[in-house]
Design goal:
Layout (H helix, E strand, L loop, with lengths): L1 E5 L6 E6 L6 E6 L9 H12 L2 E7 L1 H4 L8 H18 L6 E6 L1 H9 L8 E4 L14 H5 L5 E6 L13 E6 L9 H16 L6
Parallel strand pairs: 3-4, 3-5, 5-6, 6-7, 7-8
Antiparallel strand pairs: 1-2, 2-4
InterPro entries: AB_hydrolase_fold (IPR029058), KANL3/Tex30_Abhydrolase (IPR046879), NSL3/Tex30 (IPR026555)
Keywords: Hydrolase
GO molecular function: hydrolase activity
Length: 205
């Protein structure tokens, strides 16, 4: 594991790198609004990716690096994320397919930036479909806009809502709520299997 700072338009982001012995792709994972990169579901997903031969970069947004708890506006989050993706894509993961992902707010960032960042797939952990008790404030448009394969792992009792499967989108429901701690080994297995399926067609024979 190595850690580095990456300059973005909104201050430095911190990146924790976990490299697979022979990387077949690279996965950037972002944290939730009030949490960090040590969230148990992010750690489980990162472990699964490395085991599947995928390099992982856990990305800590500039507002967290600066010690602020309140998240930055969406445009700032997206700009910082794309700056990190561009830096890593050109310097660390050159020629490898890039996948975006994250938990909660980080999953939203991954969805919104997937096209501009040329991500080949998106992993969403606990995607916040709507604020608790406010189904009229739907954010499904961010998921629906994806034109690449996506996996959503959602807790069966998540107060932020439940997306349905859709175009290019798989949804796996697991025990628990928004923190996805109910079945971390199951999450590990699901993520590893999904990565194997979506990466196989991209590999050069």
């Amino acid at each position: 594991m190595t850690t580095r700072l990456v300059d973005t338009p909104h201050g430095p982001a911190r990146v924790e790198m976990h490299c697979a012995p022979e990387g077949r792709a690279a996965l950037l994972l972002g944290h939730g609004a009030g949490g960090g990169i040590l969230a148990p579901d992010l750690v489980a997903a990162a472990r699964a990716a490395v085991a599947a031969g995928v390099h992982v970069a856990l990305v800590e947004q500039p507002y967290r690096v600066a010690g602020r708890r309140a998240p930055a506006p969406a445009k700032q989050l997206d700009a910082a994320w794309l700056a990190v993706a561009e830096e890593l894509g050109s310097r660390s993961f050159d020629t490898l397919p890039l996948l975006f992902g994250g938990r909660s707010s980080g999953a939203r960032v991954a969805c919104r930036t997937a096209a501009d960042g040329q991500a080949v797939a998106v992993l969403c952990l606990a995607f916040p479909v709507h604020p608790p008790g406010r189904p009229e404030k739907s954010r499904l448009a961010e998921l629906d806009a994806l034109e690449v394969p996506s996996l959503v792992v959602q807790g069966e009792k998540d107060p932020f809502g439940m997306p349905s499967p859709g175009h290019h989108r798989e949804v796996v429901v697991q025990p628990g709520d928004h923190n996805l701690k109910g079945d971390l080994e199951g999450l590990h297995r699901v993520v590893g299997e999904w990565l194997g399926r979506i990466l196989r067609p991209l590999e050069v024979v």
